[in-house]
Structure formats: structure tokens, C-alpha cells
């Protein structure tokens, strides 16, 4: 006996991200047009930082030249280590903590930020080996980092972010002035 | 060696004038004949007084001491009769009153020693006086009967106020010199403990009240008697300044002055220092100890079996988010409710060989589980009754089913957990593919053997588990094509493999994953556990 009923919907069934994560956005990061970030928050409060599909890196058939998690001389996100269930030792990040710098082959450089307060659990080393993952699967295998917000802040950290609807409406308004010659 | 000899006279004299009760006198004289303690304490007091006032050296053998010797030569029977040397008149008085405590005291009250008798003992604080008799035994028996426990034997446990140790120590120092004269071998450990004497007196009485049930030294059923004495609680306090290390606050204890800590502090304190800080002999209390409620506790019973879970919206254990309950039931609650009522237990601890997610079914022979039943009032069910219990569980819900339900030992339970990692588990998953597939596109999966995965701790459990990369092996897989976007995937894996993450890849954190193998996004729509290959508990033929 199966009490939830039969098979779920077909080909357009919600994806893993849709099923377990809530999407939050920060638009025009640090005032830079269209440098939008997308935060996927799992129901267990864990957050995955990704590029929003509108981010300039994902436009105009760009190619990535390099990804650098060394954000300053003294600090590399690659050196982040957490241990135990309590994730001791992880770097603590604030909203505007840089996570990495991405340089495209056209020499444009972008900084990706944490967007939320929390403890850095891991960065995605796969994109160092295969930068194309970032372009092909920006919201799954091309993620930037995993962050664990403080338990007591797990609700409040998204207060400054945009919901999916808010972001979509912002993006739809954005296209008008951009297509107009300035 | 147990007989009271002339050398005991000064000890007895000193103890009585210090305010000790007659049973405490016996204790300090190291009398180890149990029956000596069972006589009414007033009688013993009279006998002791007669003994010390008698200057004739040959006489004692006819009073207290001789009785003890006879008893000793005869037997050490715990439930032995009253001392035979009691005068017939007194015995006659005693017997009708034996069932009720107070009349026992009344019976002996005519001796003209009322003042001394009513004085609370400075060492045992009344525990070996009026708190030790048929009235107390009746109270204990009543508590046991009220809770309707089923048991063959019981063990009495006694919890005494910690200051009793301080008083005992003070009294020991008071008569140490005399005791050492009596025999060079006498040590503080040779003194009979209050607890011991209390049990010698009470065991037989409680047994009688409960219709002859064995009151023994080891039993799964423990009946706890506790005494407190607020009036003298401050007795221990000076030890905190002499031995601060012994009294460190702990989370669970209400007071730092536990019996253990006090005993330790008394071992450390020097004799002059003790005598400086505490009266010797101890001061006279005005009231007796207060008996607390009787606490009954039966050791846990363990029950094991296997369960099926047929529902995709049933968590294994109650599911709480922010303190609020999600889903109205759980596997453990459905199984536990009928078992708890059959064993009339106070609570339970549930464990199982792994667990499935809320939306996963467990089919086949089911998943081994075990439950510890806390304080069961009933501890033995026959095989037939266990079978009926299993049927009752199965009739109570269609969401689960239980088999092989049986009573097991605590040790056997560990068999379920040991080797859990090496065991294999079989699953069936319903897979969705983003790209359309043909039958032949998936057949290669059937040929993959012992595929080793590197699994990072899945994001969905990362909030409560450590981050690590674990290697897990998928021993074999089978595919059953359904349509251009769906197929059934059978998997036989090492225990601890995360199947959902193998299928969708978990942001590429499980490598390789099914998306890699099929070169398209894949997702898992349904998951069933087909078997958990743990050969415990033993199966029970239907
Ligand atoms: Zn006493």
C-alpha cells in the first residue's frame, strides 16, 4: 500500500533543487549591474552559493579563463577546513565576504560574494578542474560554495535577499532600459 | 568471635551513653549474626543494659551473647526464627503485634526506659529504630502491589542521607580506642553498615508481606527505600572547606554532598582536623529520618524484530521541525504503542539497523529493529503472547508490518549494530532521465560490478553530520526499462551508501553518479529498500 498515491508527474517534475531548496537572490551585487547571485537554501538551513542565470559570466557565450579562491594574499578559501559535527574551524563569512574571482577569456573579472552570514563548509574544487561546469550547470555542479548559517540566523539571513518572484520581476523590468540605446 | 565479651562492656557503655541505639551498638561491636538485629530493638537495649550492669564474667553467655552464639552455631538462615532465649512472656506479647509496627514498640515499652527508647539514635538517625519494622515493610509491600509488578524476586536498595557517614565516622573515632583493645584486627570496615543491618531486618518482613516472595541480593526488580534528614543536612558542610576537590558541582545532582563525595572527603580528612570541626560523639537529633516514597524499578526488557514500512509519508521516528511536529505518526510509535502497553513499560528506546527516509518504503523481509523497554511492570511474555502482540501491531496500522517479534537479551542487541557497515542492502529506485532513452541505452548498467563511489556527506544531512568523503561500493545494478524517460534501477550496495545522491549527484558531490553514467540529468522519483541483509534477530517461522 502506498499512501501518497502513484507516480509523480512526468518530464517536467520538479528538479532536485526545486524540491528541497528555496531560491534567494541578490541582484546587482555591490552596485555592479547584473552581477546577480543565487542562494539555494535547503530546508535544513544549509546554503549553496551559485551564479544567478542572469550573471554576466553566463551571457554572450563567454569562456572562463581562471577561477581563483585565493581572495587575498593571506586568505584562500581552498584552505578552509571543517571538522566534526559542529564544523569547527570553518571560516566565518559575512554578506560581502568574497568567495572567489572569476576571469573570463575576454579579461573581464568578477568577484563572487557570500551574500549571507555563516560558516564556510566547502568550496567547489571541481570547477577549478572543469571551469565549463560553471557555464553548463551553474545551479548544480557549477556551484561556488556551501555555507552553514548560524541556527538562530537561519531565517533572518534571507531577509535582505530577493525571493524568486521579486527577482523575476526585477529582471523583466531590467531588459527594457538595457535594450534602449543610451 | 561475635559474642559480646567483657571487653565489649566499655564499648557498649560508651556507645549507649553517647546516644546510640541498641542495633548501632551491635554494629559497632561487629556482631554479624543477622538474627540479633531482628529482635525488637527495645529488647536488645534491655539485654545490653543488663549485660553491662552485670559484673559477673560468666553471666553474659545467658543474655545477649549466648543467644548470638547459639544462633551462629545453628545457622545463618536469613528468615530464621526469633532468638530462642527470649523469655516466653515477651514472645507471647510480641507475636500478636508482629504484623503492625507500632504495637511492637508498645509491647516493649513497659520496661521503664521510655526516655532512652524514644531518643533518636545519634548515628542511624532512627533508621534502625522505628523506621525498621513491620510498618515500614507493609508500606514497601503496598507500593509494590499498587504498581502491579509481575516478579519472582526483589532486591531492596537503601538510600541513606550522606551525613550518616559523617556521624558514623564520628562515632567510630569515639570508640576506636576501645575497639582496638578488643581485637587488634578491628577496622572501620569491620563495623556492620547501617544499610546491611537494615536489610537483614527488613528482607524477611517484606517477603512475608508479599506472601513469601524472595527478597534477595540480586534481582531484576529493585525496590528502593530512601531516607532524608533535613535537620542534620548541615553536618556535611564543613567537609567542603577541608576537601574542596571532593565537592565539585555536577549537572545532574541537586547537592554536591553526595554519599560518594562525603565518603571520599572523610577518607582524606585527618583525625585531629575532623575532631576539631565536628562533635564526637555526634550531637543528639530531635527527629527521625523522613522515609521518602518507595521507588520501584524493573530492569529493562529488550524486544527485537523486523519491520516493513509501506508508506511514503511516514518517518521512522517522530519528525520535529522548530519543535513542531510534522507527520502525525512514525514507525517507532506505531510499533511501540502496543508493546509498551503489553509490557506496561514507562518508556522505550528504539534502534534499528540503519534507517530509511520518510518517503522510502522498506519491503521484503524488513529492517531489523530493537527496543529497550524501560521499567516494564510485566517482563515475561510467552511465545504465544509475543505472537499475539505482533498480530496486534499489524492489525493496528496498514502503514507498517512487523515480523520475528521476540524478547532478546541486552547483549544480543549489539549484534544488530556490529558489522552493520559490511552488510549489504538492496534497493529499487524509480529513475527519471532528462533525455529520452531507448531500451538499449541503459543495458550497460547491468554489467557494472563493484563500482566504488566517493560520496561527500550529502547536503541534506550535512547540518548534523561531519563533512567527509566516504568510499562506498555498489556491488551490482539491474535495470528494467519503463518508458522513454523512466526505468527501474535495482541496486545491491554496501550499507551506508546514499542512493538518492548516487542518482542525482548531489551537486556533483557524489562521484561517479548516475548522471555521469547516463550522460544526462537523472532524478530519483521513488525508492524502496528491498532487503537489509542482517541475520539478526533470528527469524521465527510463521
Ligand atoms: Zn542507631
Automatic annotation (TrEMBL), chain A:
It comes from the Eukaryota. It is found in: Cell projection, Dendrite; Cell projection, Growth cone; Cell projection, Lamellipodium; Nucleus speckle. Gene3D superfamilies: 2.40.50.100. InterPro entries: Abitram (IPR039169), GCV_H/Fam206 (IPR033753), Single_hybrid_motif (IPR011053). Keywords: Cell projection, Nucleus. GO terms for molecular function: actin filament binding; actin monomer binding. One of its GO terms (cellular component) is lamellipodium. GO terms for biological process: dendrite morphogenesis; regulation of actin filament polymerization; regulation of filopodium assembly. It holds the Pfam family GCV_H. Belongs to the ABITRAM family. This is Protein Abitram.
UniProtKB/TrEMBL annotation, chain B:
GO terms for cellular component: mitochondrion; nucleus. The keyword Nucleus applies. Gene3D superfamilies: 1.10.10.2050, 3.30.70.2510, 3.30.70.3190. It catalyses: uridine(54) in tRNA = pseudouridine(54) in tRNA; uridine(55) in tRNA = pseudouridine(55) in tRNA. One of its GO terms (biological process) is tRNA pseudouridine synthesis. The keyword Metal-binding applies. GO terms for molecular function: metal ion binding; RNA binding; tRNA pseudouridine(55) synthase activity. Its EC number is 5.4.99.25. It is found in: Cytoplasm; Mitochondrion; Nucleus. It comes from the Eukaryota. Residues 121-296 form the Pus10 N-terminal eukaryotes domain. Keywords: Coiled coil, Cytoplasm, Isomerase, Metal-binding, Mitochondrion, Nucleus, tRNA processing, Zinc. Residues 302-533 form the Pus10-like C-terminal domain. Residues 57-112 are annotated as: Disordered. Belongs to the pseudouridine synthase Pus10 family. This is tRNA pseudouridine synthase Pus10.
Amino acid at each position: 500500500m502506498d499512501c501518497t498515491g502513484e507516480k509523480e508527474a512526468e518530464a517536467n517534475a520538479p528538479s532536485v533543487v526545486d524540491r528541497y531548496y528555496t531560491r534567494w537572490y541578490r541582484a546587482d551585487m555591490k552596485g555592479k549591474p547584473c552581477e546577480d547571485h543565487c542562494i539555494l537554501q535547503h530546508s535544513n538551513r544549509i546554503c549553496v552559493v551559485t551564479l544567478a542565470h542572469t550573471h554576466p559570466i553566463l551571457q554572450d557565450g563567454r569562456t572562463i579563463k581562471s577561477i581563483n579562491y585565493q581572495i587575498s594574499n593571506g586568505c584562500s578559501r581552498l584552505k578552509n577546513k571543517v571538522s566534526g559535527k559542529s564544523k569547527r574551524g570553518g571560516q566565518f563569512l559575512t554578506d560581502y565576504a568574497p568567495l572567489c574571482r572569476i576571469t573570463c577569456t575576454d579579461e573581464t573579472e568578477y568577484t563572487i560574494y557570500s551574500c549571507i552570514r555563516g560558516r564556510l563548509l566547502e568550496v567547489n574544487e571541481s570547477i577549478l578542474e572543469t571551469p565549463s561546469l560553471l557555464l553548463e550547470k551553474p545551479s548544480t555542479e557549477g556551484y561556488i560554495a556551501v555555507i552553514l548559517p548560524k541556527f538562530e540566523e537561519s531565517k533572518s539571513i534571507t531577509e535582505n535577499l530577493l525571493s524568486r518572484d521579486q527577482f523575476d520581476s526585477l529582471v523583466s523590468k531590467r531588459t527594457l532600459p538595457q535594450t534602449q540605446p543610451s | 568471635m561475635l559474642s559480646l565479651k567483657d571487653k565489649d562492656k566499655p564499648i557498649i557503655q560508651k556507645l549507649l551513653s553517647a546516644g546510640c541505639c541498641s542495633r548501632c551498638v551491635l554494629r559497632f561491636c561487629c556482631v554479624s549474626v543477622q538474627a540479633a538485629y531482628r529482635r525488637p530493638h527495645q529488647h536488645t537495649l534491655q539485654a545490653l543494659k543488663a549485660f553491662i550492669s552485670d559484673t559477673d564474667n560468666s553471666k553474659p553467655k545467658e543474655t545477649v551473647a549466648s543467644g548470638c552464639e547459639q544462633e551462629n552455631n545453628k545457622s545463618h538462615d536469613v528468615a530464621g526464627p526469633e532468638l530462642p532465649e527470649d523469655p516466653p512472656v515477651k514472645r507471647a506479647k510480641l507475636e500478636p503485634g508482629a504484623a503492625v509496627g507500632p504495637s511492637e514498640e508498645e509491647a516493649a515499652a513497659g520496661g521503664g526506659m521510655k526516655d532512652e527508647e524514644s531518643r533518636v539514635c545519634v548515628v542511624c538517625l532512627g533508621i534502625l529504630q522505628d523506621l525498621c519494622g513491620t510498618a515500614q515493610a507493609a508500606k514497601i509491600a503496598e507500593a509494590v502491589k499498587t504498581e502491579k509488578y509481575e516478579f519472582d524476586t526483589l532486591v531492596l536498595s537503601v538510600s541513606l542521607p550522606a551525613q550518616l557517614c559523617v556521624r558514623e565516622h564520628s562515632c567510630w573515632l569515639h570508640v576506636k580506642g576501645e575497639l582496638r583493645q578488643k581485637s587488634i584486627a578491628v577496622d572501620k570496615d569491620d563495623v556492620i553498615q547501617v544499610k546491611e543491618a537494615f536489610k537483614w531486618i527488613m528482607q524477611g518482613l517484606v517477603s512475608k508481606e508479599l506472601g513469601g516472595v524472595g527478597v534477595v541480593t540480586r534481582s531484576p526488580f529493585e525496590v528502593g527505600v530512601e531516607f532524608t534528614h533535613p535537620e542534620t543536612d548541615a553536618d556535611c558542610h564543613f567537609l567542603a572547606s577541608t576537601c574542596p576537590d571532593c565537592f565539585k558541582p555536577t549537572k545532574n545532582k541537586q547537592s554536591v554532598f553526595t554519599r560518594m563525595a562525603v565518603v571520599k572527603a572523610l577518607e582524606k580528612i585527618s583525625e585531629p582536623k575532623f575532631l576539631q570541626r565536628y562533635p564526637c560523639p555526634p550531637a543528639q537529633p530531635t527527629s527521625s529520618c523522613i522515609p521518602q516514597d518507595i521507588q520501584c524499578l524493573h530492569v529493562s526488557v529488550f524486544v527485537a524484530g523486523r519491520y516493513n514500512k509501506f508508506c511514503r509519508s511516514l518517518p521512522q521516528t517522530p519528525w520535529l521541525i522548530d519543535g513542531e511536529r510534522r507527520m502525525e505518526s512514525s514507525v517507532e510509535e506505531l510499533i511501540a504503542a502496543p508493546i509498551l502497553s503489553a509490557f506496561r513499560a514507562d518508556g522505550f528506546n528504539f534502534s534499528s539497523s540503519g534507517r530509511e527516509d520518510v518517503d522510502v518504503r522498506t519491503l521484503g523481509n524488513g529492517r531489523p529493529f530493537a527496543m529497550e523497554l524501560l521499567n516494564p511492570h510485566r517482563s515475561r511474555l510467552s511465545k504465544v503472547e509475543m505472537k499475539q502482540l505482533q498480530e496486534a501491531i499489524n492489525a493496528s496500522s496498514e502503514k507498517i508490518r512487523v515480523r520475528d517479534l521476540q524478547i532478546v537479551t541486552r547483549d544480543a542487541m549489539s549484534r544488530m549494530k556490529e558489522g552493520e557497515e559490511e552488510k549489504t542492502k538492496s534497493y529499487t529506485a524509480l529513475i527519471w532521465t532528462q533525455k529520452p532513452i531507448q531500451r538499449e541505452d541503459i543495458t550497460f548498467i547491468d554489467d557494472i560490478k563493484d563500482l566504488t563511489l566517493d560520496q561527500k556527506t550529502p547536503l541534506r544531512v550535512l547540518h548534523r553530520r561531519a563533512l567527509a568523503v566516504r568510499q562506498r561500493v555498489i556491488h551490482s545494478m539491474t535495470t528494467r526499462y519503463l518508458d522513454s524517460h523512466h526505468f527501474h534501477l535495482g541496486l545491491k550496495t554496501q550499507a551506508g551508501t546514499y542512493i538518492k545522491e548516487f542518482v542525482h549527484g548531489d551537486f556533483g558531490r557524489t562521484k561517479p553518479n548516475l548522471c555521469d553514467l547516463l550522460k544526462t540529468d537523472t532524478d530519483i522519483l521513488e525508492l524502496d529498500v528491498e532487503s537489509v541483509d542482517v541475520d539478526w534477530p533470528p527469524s521465527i517461522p510463521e
